[in-house]
Structures are given as structure tokens and as C-alpha cells.
Amino acid sequence: MERLSQQINFIRELDKLKQVQRQTWLMDGCRQENSAEHSWHIAVMALVLAEYAPARTLNLARVVQMLLVHDIVEIDAGDTFCYDNAAVAHQTADEERAAERLFGLLPEDQAEYFRSLWDEFEKRETSEALLANALDRMQPILNNYDSGGKSWQVHGIAKDQVRQRNRIMGDGAPELWAFIEDLLKQAVEKGMLKA
User: Fold this and answer.
1) Residue 41 has what pLDDT?
2) Angstrom distances, CA of residue 30 to CA of 148, 153, 175
3) What secondary structure letter does DSSP report for 31?
4) Which residues of 91-107 are buried (b: 16+ CB within 10 A; e: fewer)?
5) C-alpha dihedral (153, 155, 160, 161), degrees to nearest 10
6) pLDDT score of 23
7) Domain spans of the chain?
8) Does domain 2-189 have CATH number 1.10.3210.10?
9) Cα–Cα distance for residue pair 25/147, rounded to 1 Å
10) Tell me, what's the pLDDT at 82?
11) How far apart are CA 99 and CA 171, in angstroms?
12) Non-local CB neighbours of 195 within 8 Å, separated by 6+ positions
């Protein structure tokens, strides 16, 4: 029963991810999304958009697992606004501590597996991690565009900031990055994003 108890405690802890508010608004602009919603959304995006990964062979299940696990650390570390340079400077250390605590709630074998998924996502060295990172970057851009640029406008974000932050998409999904580049151009033309 000790194993099951550890697993249930972890599952209970996961519920807190629903309370982590992100800067990104839902596409209809009615409210900001939470981190659990973001994780679900990008996991489904992987199922839909996996064909755009340049890798000939891709372990799609691993991509989805990474996407479901990578933001769990936000339970402790919070969601770091990607354009806040001061916050980003502390993000790695905060998330490392969170990963140790949160994955440490699980039985040892599962703790190691979840941590390996999280580490793989962070390192961006496998085809699966590159696609997962590309989708993680793509979703907030789509949400911003469809919400009329709400988060971009609130924070005075410029196109070059978005491009700089998200250009790594090209490593994991070049065609999706080309699509996003066009979307950013349209966002500037429509006044959603500063030139």
C-alpha cells in the first residue's frame, strides 16, 4: 500500500497545477488559462501536428508524455512570464528544486521516469524533445493571436521579442515555425503586436 499511497499523494499534488495562472489568455479572450489547461492543449496538439516533425521516426507517446509532465514543476515554481528577463534568470534553479520535490513524491522507479522525461524536454537533444518544445512555444502564440494579442498588448511585447524567444521552434518543426512567422507578421499588421 505504500506505493499506492505515494502515487495518490502525487495525484493529489497535481491538482494544484489547475491553480497556476498563466499570462496567456484563452483564444476567445474570456480569461487567462491555467498550466493544466496548457499542458492538455499542447499534448493534443502533438497528436494533431506530429507529422510536421522533421524526424523520420518519432516516438509520439514520449512527446505526449513530456508535454504532460514538463510543467508540473510550476506547482512550486509558478509560471515564469517568458519576456520577464529577471524572472527567467531564476527559472532554472526554481524549477530544478520543484522537480526534485514533486517527482520525489512518487515511488522511486516512477520518480526516475518522470524526471527523465522532464530532463529530456529541458535539454532539447532528441527529436521528441525538439517537437515538444516547438509545440510548447506555438500554443501561446496561437492563443495570443486568436485573443487579439491580449497578453502581448498588456505587456507591450514587440515582434522581435516573440521571434527571439520562439525561434527554437524551427529546430523541432520548421514548417510550423514558418506558419508562426507569417502569423506574427499578420499580428503586427493588425496592431496586435508592436513592430
Assistant:
1) 98
2) 11, 15, 30
3) S
4) beebbeebbeebbebbe
5) -140
6) 92
7) 2-189
8) yes
9) 7
10) 83
11) 25
12) 158, 159, 188
Size (the chain), residues = 195
What cell does 170 get? 524551427
pLDDT tens digits in sequence order for the chain, 195 residues long: 999 999 999 999 999 999 999 999 999 999 999 999 999 999 999 999 999 999 889 999 999 999 999 999 999 999 988 887 877 778 889 999 999 999 999 999 999 999 999 999 999 999 999 999 999 999 999 999 999 999 999 999 999 999 999 999 999 999 999 999 999 999 999 999 999
Q: DSSP characters for 66-104?
A: HHHHTTTTHHHH-PPPTT-HHHHHHHHHHHHHHHHHHHT
Would the pTM of this model clear 0.90, i.e. be above it? yes
Angle, to 10 degrees, between the axis of helix 60-69 and the axis of helix 35-49?
Answer: 170
| Structure confidence at residue 90 (pLDDT) | 83
Phi-psi region of 55 (alpha: psi -120 to 50; beta: other; left: phi over 0): beta
Buried/exposed code over 19-57 (b: 16+ C-beta within 10 A; e: otherwise)? ebebbbbebeeeebbbbbbbbebbbebbeebbebbeeee
Instruction: Choose among 17, 36, 9, 33: nearest CA to 76.
Output: 17
> How far is residue 66's CA from residue 116's CA, in Å, rounded to a whole number?
9
